[in-house]
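[SOLVED] Predicted holo structure with zinc ion

Edit: marking solved, answer below. Original request kept for reference. I posted the sequence and ligand SMILES and asked for the 3D complex as structure tokens.
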Amino acid sequence: MIIITQKSFKYRIYPTEAQITNLINQFSMCRYLYNWSLEERIKAYENEQISITYNEQQNKLPELKKERPHFKGVYSQVLQDVLKRLDSAYQGFFRRVKKGDTAGFPKFKKKGDWDSITYPLYRYSVSSQIYVPKVGTVKIIYHREIPKEAKIKTLTITKESDKWFACFSVELSINIEHKQGLANSIGIDLGLIDFLYASDGSHVPAPKYYRKLQNRLARLQRRFAKADKYSSKWYKLLKAIQKVYYRIRCLKHDFLHKTANALLEKADIIFHENLNISGMMRRPKPKQDEEGKYLPNNASAKSGLNKSFADASLGQFLNTLKSKAVALGKKVIGVPPHYTSQECPVCHQIVKKSLSVRTHRCPCGFVANRDFAASLNILRIGLDTLTA
Ligand SMILES: [Zn+2]
């Protein structure tokens, strides 16, 4: 399977004295633009209760250049990127407010606070030197090659203490299943929010019916406990409880079989993480994801039920999957669960994240759903053990 990923490549560059002066100048103009635009947004809100958008601020750039000709020394796209940075600082603020966090409002940038410029649509090739618009040709130590098939998206020039760097963000398609003869294998990550996430990108949410029926069951059991033993009401409630139990069993059986069949239809070898139920029980559930959206089964009150569902069902699911696989001449193989949720499937560095963080964000540029990243790791570990 081919997946498109974002990756970044960073190199030391050696601008001349004149180029350094030029870049430092650009930094201070970017900082000025940022602060000016932030103030414009704040004033517009204070005075007229209106929100100024990125597009409105971007449309004012030509006017600004006319009024302040020295802005012509900064590439238009770099200025647009400054406004985009402000816009995402705003959006990040509102996202945090929505989540109920005590959120920091975007701050004015002090002198020295600005140390990078980004060319969002960089389209030049890289060799022993690079062309930087409005700066010129700069010497670069091209110590590792950007893959030929990679598409360069952006260039960011940064200053870190007294050193200068060029960082290219590229789009790269990588082939996850590269080992011959095992193309028909899949990795699955089992969990509480998504019942399973597969390395082909498909996922199955934890079933919703379980909670509803568990609530009904709890209500019935409370009434049952209060009823006079062996009374007609008591017998009626007992029958109702048995009926709910039966309903849960049927739905679960149906869910597990359908999920297993769907997997076996697309893969000959299925790798899963060896289950550590006690470890899973400790996994807390987040209330919202990073975008501030509520996850399908978010409430903490539900987590107990999801845990009990997972507890009862994940092991059962693997047994179902294994017995079906045997009948079809397919394989279900467990792999040790080391770092599958922390390691980056693209560059293999460990990206520590707390249990509530649902997105894997690697410094290498790879961004994916946490459980999807885990499923890619499970697939790779599985393939490695098979071909070792
Ligand atoms: Zn990575």
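OP edit: The two ends are 21 Å apart (CA to CA). Thanks to everyone who chimed in.
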